[in-house]
Hints:
Shape of chain A: extended
Structural class of chain A: alpha+beta
Structural class of chain B: mainly beta
Oligomer: heterodimer
Largest sheet of chain A: 8 strands, antiparallel
Number of strands of chain B: 14
Number of domains of chain A: 7
Strand content of chain A: 15-25%
Number of strands of chain A: 51
Amino acid sequence: MARRGRDDDDDEVEEEEDEEEAYDLYDDEEEDEEDDYEEEARRGKASRGKGGGGGGGRKRSREDNFIDDSAIEDDDEDDDDDGGGARPKKKGGGGVRGFFDEEAQVDEDEEEEDDGEGEDDFINDAGADIPDEDAVRGSRRHSIPMRDEEEDIDEIERQVRERYARSSHIEYGEEAAEVEQQALLPSVKDPKLWMVKCAIGHERETAICLMQKFIDRSDLQIKSVVALDHLKNYIYVEAEKEAHVKEACKGLRNIYASAKITLVPIKEMADVLSVESKSVDLSRDSWVRMKLGIYKGDLAKVVDVDNVRQRVDVKLIPRIDLQALASKLEGREVVKKKAFVPPPRFFNIDEAREMHIRVERRRDKESGEYFEWVDNLKFKDGFLYKSVSTKSIHTNNIQPTFDELEKFRKPGDDMNGDMASLSTLFANRKKGHFMKGDAVIVIKGDLKNLEGWVEKVEDETVHIRPKISDLPKTLAFNEKELCKYFKPGDHVKVISGVQEGATGMVVKVEGHVLIILSDTTKEHIRVFADHVVESSEITTGITRIGDYELHDLVLLDNLSFGVIIRVETEAFQVLKGVPDRPEVVLVKLREIKNKIDRRTSAKDRSNNIISAKDVVRVVEGASRGKQGPVEHIHKGILFIYDRHHLEHAGFICAKAQSCLLVGGSNGGRQGNGMDSADARLGALRSPASILQSPGRLPPRGPQMNYGGRYGGGRGGRGYDALVGKCIKIKSGPYKGYRGRVKEVTGALVRVELDSLMKIVTVKRDDIADTPTVATPFREPRYSLGGETPMHPSRTPHHAYQTPMRDPGATPIHDGMRTPMRSRAWAPMSPPRDNWEDGNPATWSSSPAYQPGTPPARPYEAPTPGSGWANTPGVSFNDAPTPRENYANAPSPYVPSTPVGQPMTPNSASYLPGTPGGQPMTPGNVGMDIMSPIIGGEGEATWLLPDVLVNVLRGGDDGPGVVREVLGDGSCRVALGSSGNGDMVTVLPTELEVIRPKKSDRIKILNGNFRGYTGKLIGIDGSDGIVKLDDTYEVKILDMVILAKLAT
Amino acid sequence: MDSLSQPPSKRPLSSSATDFREVSLASPPAADDEGERSKMFFHIVLERNMQLHPRHFGPHLRDKLVSKLIKDVEGTCSGRHGFVVAITGVEDVGKGLIREGTGYVTFPVKYQCVVFRPFKGEILEAVVTMVNKMGFFAEAGPVQIFVSNHLIPDDMEFQSGDVPNYTTSDGSVKIQKESEVRLKIIGTRVDATEIFCIGTIKDDFLGVISDPGAAV
C-alpha cells in the first residue's frame, strides 16, 4: 500500500546515492553522450509548450506518471506534510496546493528548471523520462550522472542531501505501528468518499477535469478525486456532502447529470485506495512472453526487474530485418510491410557490419557489461536486450517449449547452471506435484544437489529424507527448491507437455531434461524431469481418436488405405498400403473415411492362402527378409508386423505376392473367402428352407424364386444383432432418416435408407433402434405361425410407417401383409392366448367378429391408404381404409382372403379347408410377384426384365438392359442403352436402376403393381405420377420403385 | 515372429554371457546394487497347473506331462522370474483333478528350472542386431537391449550407409550388425512376455569385444 510504496522509494533513494558514486568512477567516457542527452532534455523542456517532438513525448509520459501518482502519492504527500498525525488529511492543506501536491511542485520545478537551475526536486523524475522515450532505455538513476558535467560532485551531494532532507521520507523509515495505522483510518468526522458514475474509459479524464475545475473555481468543496485503473465507469470523489459532489460534477461532459452518486461506507473507504500488490513475482531469469508488437508471443528471459518503474529488461531472440534497418539508418524511406514479421534470428554483428550498419560497442552503465548498440537497440551474444513495461509481458503460466529453450541455450551453456530459469516451469506445477516416495534433488540453496526422497508434502513445503545418512531424518524444503530426479534406466511416464502420456525408459539425464526411449516408438523423447513420473505402465500416449485406434487399417480420403502407426494429438500417422517403399502420411481424423474391418485373405507367392495372423516372410522387394504375423490384408497388400522392425511401429507393407507363408495358416479353420461365402450362403438359405419346410405354404412356383432371391439379397452381411433391424438415424447428416441396417463394422453401421435407395455409413451412436423387428427376422416367424402376439401387434406400427416412406422395397410387403395380419389378429385381441395356442376353433369363429371389432385395431384407423392400396385383392385397391374395406365385404370370409394370401404359411395351416384358406388362388397371381419381396431387402430383388440399368462393374460400366432375372438374383444384362451389346451376367449389387424422367416409359418394380408398365406423366417430389398401360389408371407411386424401361 | 517362442536352447546365448554365474534355489533377489557380483541366471522351483487330455492317460502319463511342460514353459518369459531357459527336473506331480465337462485333468506340477533375468547394473555380452541413428539394439539370448547413442562413448559417431555403424573418429573401433559388445544394463522393462533392457557402453571395459569386420 501507500506505506509500502514509500519504503520502496526509500530504498530507491539509497540506491541512487550508491550508484551515483559508482557512476562517478567510470563516467568519463560517456560524458559526451550524456551531454547530448542533457542538451536534448533541456531543449525539450524549453520547447515544451510549442509541442516539439521530444517535448510532446515527454509530456505524455509525464502525464502518465502524474496520473499514476495522483491517487497514491497524493495521499502520501499529504501524510508527509502533516506528519504522522491522526489523519489530518488535507485539512491543513486546502486550496490547489493541497489538492495536487505533486503537480504543484512539478510546476514549480519546471519554472526553476527553465531558469537554468534551482532546487532539484521531483523534476528528476520528469527529466529521466526523456532518455526513456528517446533512447529506449535509461532510468531515473541516470539523471544524476547526467548532471555531473555541469555541477561538480559536491554540488550534487549537496543537492541530494537537500533533496532528501526536504522530503520527509526519513520519518517513515520506521514502520508505523499498528495503532498509528489504525488511527489513520477514516472516521465519521472525515469527508466521505462518493462513487460517481462516469463515461466508461474516461475515468482519468474526468478526474483531470475535476482537478482543473477545482483549480479554476475555488468554491468547489470536494477534497479529492480518485480514478482507479482497475475500476471502469466510476470515479471516487471525496467530499463532505453529496451536494458538494453534485456541484463539482455539474456540467462535466463525462458525468451524466442523472448519474447516481453513491456513498462508500466508511469501512470500505480504505479498501478503495489500497493497492492490491500483485503477486507476480518477476525475478531474474524467469521466462515471460511478450504481449505486443512483432515479438508478440515470443519467449523472453528476464534479465532485470525494476519494480518501481514497472519495467523489465528482457532478453529476446531478435526479429530484425537487417535490410530494413540498414535502409532506415541510411535515411532511406522504409516501406513498411505490415504483414511481414522477420523470423527470430540471433543478431550477427559481422552480418550487420557488412550491410554498413554501424554497430557500437559500449558498456552498460548499470551492469558494466558490454553491449552492441545498433540504432538504439542493444544486443549481446546475439540476443536483443529490451526494456519493456511489466504490463506488456505475460508472466503467468509460461510454458516454454523445448525448442524455445533450446534456442535460448547457447552452446556450452549447461542446463544445470540454468537452474533459475526453471523457476517459471515450477510455477506451473500442478498441485500434488510431489508425492511420497518421489526421488528429488535440491536445486537451490545451501543443500543444492542433495538427493532424497519425498516423505511428506504440506502445501508448499516438502519434507524429504536425504540420501546421505548423516543428515537429519527429514528436511523441509520449499517446493520450488526441489526438482524431481531420475536416474537412467528408470521407467517413467510423461504426465504433461507435448509428449503427455508416453512412457519409456530414461536413457540420459541432462540436468533437468530427460531423454527417454519411448516404449512403443523406440525413439528418443526429450522431456523435463518435472513432467514425468515414475511408472511401470507402458503406453503410447493416446491410442485412439474418434473411432480409429492405433494399428487399425483405415481407408483414406483418396481411396488409398493404410495402417495407423501412430496417434498424435490431432492426427494419425498412417503407413500407406503402397508396397516397395514405406510411405507415411499424416492424416487428420476427417481425412479418414472409415475403418476397414473386413476379414479377407490373399494368396502368397505359391498360392497359399494367407489370412490375418498368419506368419509370412517377405521374399522380395524392399523389405525382403522381414518376417512376422500379418495384421491386415487389403487388396492383396499385407501389413506385416515385425517386432524387429523399428520404423513405422514395426509395420511393413508388402504385396501378398512377394511373401511366403511360414508354417500353416491360422486362418485355415475359418476358411478362406470361398468357404466362408459358402457358409454364409448356407446360413442364409436355411431360413428359406424353414419357410418351406413346414409345408404350410402350398408348393407353388414362385418358391424357388423366393428362396433364391432371398439368398441373393442378403449375401455377406455382418452378424451383429443389429443387422437387419429397422433403425432411425438420430444425428448426423442423415438425421431423421429411417433405414435398415445392412452391416455393422465396429462402430460404424451401413444403413440402407428407406427413402433414398442408397446405403450410407453412419456411426452406431447415431442410430436409434426402433422397436420394430425388420423383415428378415420376421420371415421365419411368419412361417412358424403362432408366435407371440407381441410382435405382430407391434409390426403394424412399422407397417404403417414404412409404406409411407418407402413403398420401394420390402416395407410394401409389410404394409400389405401385416395389416391384414393384424386384422386377423385384431379380432382376437381379447383372447390372444387362444391364438397363441393356435386354436383353430377360435380362429374359425373369428370371422364373425371381424366386422365388428374396429376398436381392437386402433392402429389401423389412422392408416393412410398407401398400405392398403397395395393389397393384392383388386377389390381392395380402391378401399381407402380398412373399415370401408370391411363394410364392402359381402361375406365374413372374404376379408380373410387377403389375410390368407400374404400370410400363406399361417393362414394356410390354420385354416385348412376353410373357404378363407382357399380363395387365395385368385389373388395369387399378384402374390407370386410379390412373394420374392418377402425375402428381398436387397436392392437387387426387384429388378425386372426390360428395365434399363447402369452396370457398375469394372470394365462393363455403362447402361444396359436387363434381359432376364436369374434365380440367384443376378441378372443377364445386355449392354448398351438399347440393349444391343454383349450379354453379361451381373450381380444385383452391381446394378443401378436408371431413374425415369418425366414422360419416360416406366416399369414398376415393386408394390402390387410390380411388373406393370406405364408412363411417367409427372413427378411430385419423391412421388411419381404414373399412368398404367393396362388400365389407363393414374397412380401416384414412389419414384424409388419406378424404373426406366428400355426403348 | 517373436523370438521368445523359440526355445532359447535352440538359439545359443551369445558366447560367455551365458556362463552360469550362479545357480541358486532362491527366487531372484531384488536388483543388485552396482558393483556386487551380478546374477542373472537362477535355478528355482516353480509350480504350474498342467491340463492333460484324457487320451494321454496311460503308462506314459508322466512322460507326456513332462514333455508338455517343457513344451509349454521353456522359452517363455514371466515378468517375475524372467525367461525360463531350461527345465532341469520335475520335483513333484500332484494329484490330478478331472475337470468337469471336458475330461481334462489338471495336475499341479512342481519343477526346477533355470531362469534368466537380467538386472540393472549387470554386465553382459550381446550381439548387435540393428544399428540406427538413435543407437543400436543388441540381443543377449532372448533379451533385447537397446543402447542409446547417448550411452555410446562420445567419440563414436554414427555412420549411415549400407552397413550403418558407430565408429570412433580414428576408425579403430566399429559397432555394426553382428558385432559383439559388452554392455551394462542400466534399466529393464519387464512385461508379461518380454524383457527389454537399455544398456550403456559408456563405461570402463565396455564396448566391442569382437568385430565381425575385423575377423574377416
